[in-house]
Design brief:
heterodimer; A: 10 helices; B: alpha+beta; Nucleotidyltransferase, domain 5; six-stranded mixed beta sheet; two-stranded antiparallel ribbon; 11 helices
Chain lengths: 163, 348
């Protein structure tokens, strides 16, 4: 019995939304990111379900879309679609800076390069082994480790500077 | 320790995640919308070639136009009819730069014995067929299987032959000849018209020439037009957007004055470079004579609500025998003229 799109969405949609929130730092962007990806997932379901692990395949699609968003058309489409006053949301730093002190780390995350943030999310939120992270990011395991250590170094430096 | 703080931070922000139920509905709505667009796109892409093919038959061979490429095989005033029915398969083929061929459009043109009317019956390119000696396939793929050569350029003639044989196996109709219309003919047609104005919704930058075509209307020659129409990567919706540009081209083409006979003759001459005629049971001059005698083209509906079926994760379409079988039988028994009179609603 093959997995259907409905069964997949029942189980995974919430997970994918949480994952996207961790990547974007913003619920609205996360929603757009997941919607755009899941539309493609549903339209190409036969291909998705042929993957060894559909869940990992979809996570990779979301990640790629997120990594692409400044280069590609996705952000432009989001910007065009957004109400004028919503456009400010695209800069997640502002959104996060208003939050309490304990959310400082969250706001620092927003300043990291996107690939580094994705690597952190995959390791410390999704708890995936480095090999799987490398597969999702489409890079070598060594690259994953160096991104993570560079990201951690940045965060540590921020911690030291902030009293 | 920073690691622990990170884990905590992520967990704390889980509450930011929006609820999934409304999103799920939004996704389903967007999918329905895109499926509708996609169906429309496919139909229009097929229709594009069907138009090209349908135009090529009556216009290319009509004696009023005096098609130049027919040359001495065309007998002036020899607009004859055949004493037997004639069925021609018109294949609209995407030649993908000469590497491989797929028939996007498969159209049967049937001229009953002693008739001046050609009837067009269109077969879906996703039609489930049994290729003789090969097995299950989509009709459009048959051309590819037939033309593909290991380590050599594809042989379109063989593709057309296999497609004709497969159509016979699927419909019971003998195919007297095939007419293969290639996309590459579009370039020559564009030039023959002195360029075609195309209006695109968004900027297109060519991966092949590096040229950037701005959004909006522009008049392009054949070379630039083919460059623009080939682009798929870099467009937000890839192949969908490419099809949209293809439709924009057809709109531009039809907006031009194609009723001018001189211009039409030039177009026909240009298109002939992209049109191959191969006959199994009939010689080319004879085919052209019959075609020159055709003064009316009508299309026969064999059911547009093709029924889908999925086998091994490949989806196919099937004909509705209640609608298609009577048409095929009438063609085979050379009584399509009578059938069309009795069933005016199925004929346009």
């Amino acid at each position: 019995m093959t997995l259907t799109y409905e069964e997949f969405a029942d189980v995974q949609l919430g997970n994918m939304l949480r994952y996207a929130v961790m990547l974007c730092g913003d619920p609205h962007l996360a929603q757009d990111l997941v919607q755009e990806t899941m539309v493609r997932v549903q339209l190409n379901w036969r291909k998705v379900v042929r993957a060894d692990a559909p869940e990992r395949y979809v996570r990779r699609m979301i990640t790629n879309q997120y990594l692409d968003w400044r280069r590609g058309s996705w952000l432009r489409r989001v910007l065009l679609r957004a109400e004028p006053d919503e456009a400010a949301r695209v800069v997640p730093v502002d959104h996060a800076q208003a939050t309490a002190d304990r959310d400082q780390i969250w706001s620092w995350l927003a300043r990291l390069p996107k690939a580094q943030r994705a690597a952190l999310v995959l390791r410390y939120y999704e708890d995936l082994p480095d090999a799987e992270i490398a597969e999702i990011l489409g890079c070598a395991v060594g690259t994953v480790r160096s991104s993570i250590s560079r990201a951690l170094a940045t965060l540590r430096a921020e911690l030291v500077e902030t009293p | 320790m920073i690691e622990e703080q990170l884990r905590e931070t992520f967990e704390r922000h889980e509450t930011l995640a929006p609820s999934s139920a409304p999103l799920r509905e939004a996704i389903d709505r967007a999918v329905r919308r895109r499926r509708r667009q996609r169906r429309l796109t496919r139909r229009l892409a097929g229709a594009t070639l069907a138009v090209a093919a349908a135009l090529s038959l009556p216009f290319a061979f009509r004696d009023a136009v005096q098609p130049p490429f027919v040359g001495d095989t065309f007998l002036p005033g020899g607009a004859q009819t055949m004493d037997r029915p004639l069925t021609v398969a018109v294949l609209g083929v995407d030649d993908d730069g000469g590497r491989s061929y797929r028939a996007d459009t498969v159209l049967l043109a049937h001229v009953p014995a002693a008739s001046h009317t050609a009837y067009l019956v269109s077969l879906p390119s996703d039609l489930l067929v049994e290729i003789p000696g090969r097995g299950r396939a989509r009709l459009g793929e048959t051309f590819y299987y037939g033309s593909e050569r290991r380590d050599a350029a594809p042989d379109p003639g063989a593709g057309a032959e296999l497609t004709a044989g497969t159509i016979t196996a699927a419909t019971g109709l003998p195919i007297d000849a095939t007419v293969t219309v290639r996309y590459s003919g579009l370039r020559a047609v564009t030039d023959a018209l002195g360029g075609v104005e195309i209006c695109v919704d968004q900027e297109v930058s060519s991966r092949h020439s590096g040229r950037v075509f701005p959004a909006g209307c522009q008049r392009l020659d054949g070379r630039s037009m083919v460059d623009l129409l080939r682009q798929r990567y870099g467009l937000p919706h890839g192949a969908y957007d490419r099809d949209a540009n293809g439709r924009a081209f057809v709109r531009g083409l039809l907006a031009g004055d194609v009723n001018d006979p001189v211009r039409l003759a030039r177009v026909v001459q240009a298109a002939s470079a992209g049109i191959d005629v191969a006959g199994t049971g009939i010689s080319t001059p004879r085919l052209l004579q019959v075609a020159a005698g055709v003064d009316t083209v009508r299309s026969v509906d064999i059911g547009s609500n093709f029924r889908g079926i999925t086998i091994d994760r490949v989806s196919y379409q099937r004909l509705d025998p209640a609608l298609s079988a009577p048409v095929f039988a009438a063609i085979k028994e050379n009584r399509l003229t009578e059938w069309a009179q009795a069933n005016p609603r199925a004929v346009r």
